[in-house]
Amino acid sequence: MPTLDSLHLYPVKSMYRLSPASAEVQPWGLAGDRRWMLVDADGVALTQRDEPSIGRFRPSPSADGASLTLTGPDGAAHTLPVPTLAGGAEEASVEVWGTRFSAATAAKDTCAWLAERLPAKLGEVRLVHLDRPGTSRPIDPKYAGPDETVSMADGYPLLVTTTASLAELNARIAEDHPGDARKGAALPMERFRPNLVVAGTEPWEEDGWRRIRVGALEFRVVKPCGRCVVTTTDQETGERRGPEPLRALARHHKFGQKLVFGQNLIPVRPTPEAEVLGTLTVGDEVEVLERVEAPLPDRR
Fold first, then answer.
1. Which of 5, 171, 250, 281 could join 22 via S-S bond, C-beta 3.0 to 4.6 A?
2. 142-145 contacts at long range (C-beta below 8 A, 24 or more positions apart)
3. 213-256: per-residue pLDDT in tens?
């Protein structure tokens, strides 16, 4: 039986991860996952696609959820209260992948602290908080119902990957670079920034899942995850590290024009009013409830 090997959440979009032993699941994702993000002067999300060093900032929410501490690459820490629109925080119109929605803006001293530690080329940078995830940002209606929403993640509440697929991908990377240990080095799962990592499957088995159960919770498997330059970024140093894994995915796991690794999930909500669906714990059993005949990747 496959099992949940690890859990990861990212309090601030594109910043460093947290890897708890258990996590509460809400309809829009893991509790606390991607509820914050950096935006530019126009309110558009700033991510590691724009500046890889964003990944070196480490966020730490307080136990009571009332504040967030950021630790910069220089080791300096800054703690700020969680801004809310109901509490009088400035409202910002922000954007992720063309979708505009409202968020609460952190105080100016936080923006100044960030500006001191981010490249000047980014211009004005603000930190914003999504305090109404149940109503603010709908999921693409091609894949979700009208009342299903997402946090500040790219498009879907959760992302699942498997250790077997990573092992297979790393094997292909090594084969593509014979005699070059540096270019053929195995990549860690952190490059792919998943929420759920599952062990005990066959390589690429997740491409054929339609519905799964993890522990007591069910999820719809709605869409493969197309990959970008973020996967070439060392999540510890914030540096780009060459063409892998994108080169290997283009050669060995390409769906149409998409370089694919992992699958996007939407939690199954038992009632429209439910806002806490349950808890996932590392070691939970993973059961495939429904499969599809997945399209074969382009293996040119």
1. 281
2. 143/222, 143/223, 143/264, 143/266, 144/222, 144/266
3. 999 999 999 999 999 999 999 999 999 999 999 999 999 999 98
